[in-house]
Design goal:
57 residues; mainly alpha; 1 helix; 72% helix
């Protein structure tokens, strides 16, 4: 049985899909966390929000 280039590519994608998915989720989490931290820093520099209400959760 001879595998073509497409067959090899499909095999590699299926082989690495679970690990790649985990890496992508981790990257997305880090990007969101960095964005939230930046917003918190900006609010702190501005002296907090006006009319600030307590957040749940």
């Amino acid at each position: 049985m001879e595998m073509t280039g497409i067959g090899v590519a499909v095999f590699l994608v299926l082989l690495f899909a679970p690990g790649l998915s985990s890496v992508l989720k981790s990257l997305a989490f880090r990007i969101r966390a960095a964005g939230k931290a930046e917003l918190v820093r900006a609010e702190r520099e501005m002296g907090g929000r006006k009319g600030k209400r307590g957040r749940r959760g």
